[in-house]
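Researcher: Here's the sequence for the chain we discussed earlier.
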Amino acid sequence: MDPYASAKDEMRGLLDSPTVGSGANEDTTRLHLIDALLFNCLGWHTQDAVTEDHHNGSYVDYIVGKPAAQFVLEAKREGISFSLPVGIEGRHAISVPTLMEDENTAKAIRQVLGYCQERGVPIGIISNGHQLAAFFASRQDGVPPLKGNALVFSSLQEMHDDFRTLWGHLSKPAFSTRSLQRYLLGSKPQALAPEKLANTIAGYPGFRRRTELETDLKMLGQLFIQDLEHEKKISDEFIKDCYCASGALSQYSLVSREVLRARYASVAATVSGGVEQVTGKKGVNPKLTGDMVTAALSRRPIILLGDVGVGKSMFLRHLIRVEAKDVLAKSIILYVDFVREPVFVADLPMYITERMTEQLESDHGIDIQERNFVRSVYNREINRFKKTIFGDESDPAEYKKHELEMLAGHLAKDFEHLRRSLEHIRATSGRSPLVVLDNIDQRPPEFQESIFESAHSIADSWPGTVFVSIRPSTFFKSRSHGALAAYQTRVFTIAPARTDQVVSKRLEYARKKVIESGVEGIFPENLSIDGEDLIAYLDALIKAFKVDDGLKSLIDNMSGGNTRTALMFLFAFIGSGYVSTQRVLDVAESGKIYTVPMHEFIRAIIFGDYDYFNPESSAVCNLFDITTNDGREHFLLPNILAHIQRVAESAGGDGSVPAAVIYSFGQAMGFSQEQIGAQLDRALKKNLLDFSEYLEGGCYRPTSVGSYLYRKLTSSFSYVDAMVVDTPVVDPSFRRQIRDVHSVKDRLQRAKVFRDYLDAQWLLLSGAGDLPFRWDEASLMLNGDITDAEAKADAAAQRRSGSSLNFWS
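Model: Thanks. This is the structure I predict for it:
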């Protein structure tokens, strides 16, 4: 029976309940009537509800809905009836003022109204078991709750007779579609946010013009600074010079060390025997190198667990080609990288076979299709074949034909033929394969599941050792109800390397290659830059990452431990149209090393290749963006981030905060579930938060990206100046003053106006209590940064000598 039909049958049975008409007290009414109505007739589950919730000295009978509370229901004893004016029985849409003409009803409505507004829950319901009224108790459209409408059922019989309406507005499925909200609001939708300044700019977002010199520098970035780890052919020299050991906790992270340490701690609880880190104080964990030898005996793969960009690929290459080179001297390395080529799940075994077969021939000189090799692999089968009816050699041609057909049958089984070939190589030369299946975490979940199964199949039946690198979130999911649930696994974790060291080593490597090769050995001919200029430019960056703790903190936090992202930020800076490359070289010519200002790095990261901030392409999130015509929402996402970090760092554990806790916090601030959900979605998209399905309803974990944004960048002129064009301004008097301007003087003035506007909107949140993010404090710091920027811009204008660029252009 479908849920609707089953629920309607339960409603019919509730009519015959002995409690109906008995005048039962509140507890009995709740137990026999309201529980049955909610959990049997309307599709809610007991785990969806919290009963007798205590808050500010009062107890609420029901708070229903997870992770976001959907409604508060106050139960009254059956003897207290909600009297309706004569003539409106049978009508479901009744104004709240009409209901409140009855004293008992008015008292109950005011009681549940207070409960909802204290907790930020939108819907209030009062019921005595056989009557029910639902109304908006917390709303953001300017209409007082006591002036709105209510959905009313005056008897159980009425609920039964019009069960379609009851189910269509109050059931769990109905709440997921916002049916009741639309019914109570009528045709009036919630007002959307006003148009952004960006929508009025012709040619937005535009492209930032680069000089010829800056274009040439971009080429340097492509050659040496971008992530080279996935190039098929990279030198041992590059691996030695650029590798950074993982595991050192960042001293610059704005997320506590306890939360960072707990990142992989919960993995141990799911793995028999626990987990190990790949590195220790003395280098690579000896248990890992030991497992590389014994894994073939245990017939299980070694899983390397690490987030995207922490350096799993670089670690593996360094392990194989440097750290464990002697241990693996007699191994055949077969490395399958899934980062580039598209592969369908159905083609996976064929893809793995083809890549390994190619590597055996190109890297080890072994052609497993070569005639003599094939005959050696299947020598036993050939000898057995000779004893069959087709093994009569009196007719050599006929015998040869049948023998070839037999061998062709074995070769047609590509995956099995590769396995047999590797067994033959080990038996004849003592060389065992080391199989690496890398970068599968950049593929869809079903693809990763298939990889796990292939890895276990290879480890179980092939000679040698198998490595698989995956993310913690993928591991949790598969461990609970995926491919990994069926297997015992050996797990090692890879923590992020220090991003400042990764960047510094990559810069030092680039400088070394320029000195060794000269510009002619690196770039095409006829470029506008020579070797000395390249070295001067690199020296400025190397110095910055050695001495500027602020820059190290920016890169470390905004990359969130992702070394690939850190290198992308460096690449964005090199040759950026927001950095005067000529000024760097002019300073070098005077015998000094240019000091890179923080604002140049921030602007290069925020804008990238564009003239204006583009939220779709920028790695940086606009914390001030809103979804509705509600200026208070400018501060919702910063407060969500601050609240999650506060709870995570005070609660212990792995730093996870249940979604229900976050929705409850946002609703208590007076925001709707839609507003909260939209901001959480933005936070996940921009890596301001991590999400896990570890708990029912999901949970969130703070990241250093989100922490740096709300704690540092909201008070930075460079950030606010960029976000102005992307932020809806709900107050027309301020909106008229915020225009598209270009000179530094005009942009500074616009930032002051935008700050004043945000100050005014912040005052509207004055009744929301002690919030973890305080715009009033950020505003003071922003004012100081604007003042400093004005002073620097004035000083730079005085120093200009023929250049059209100024300090803040």
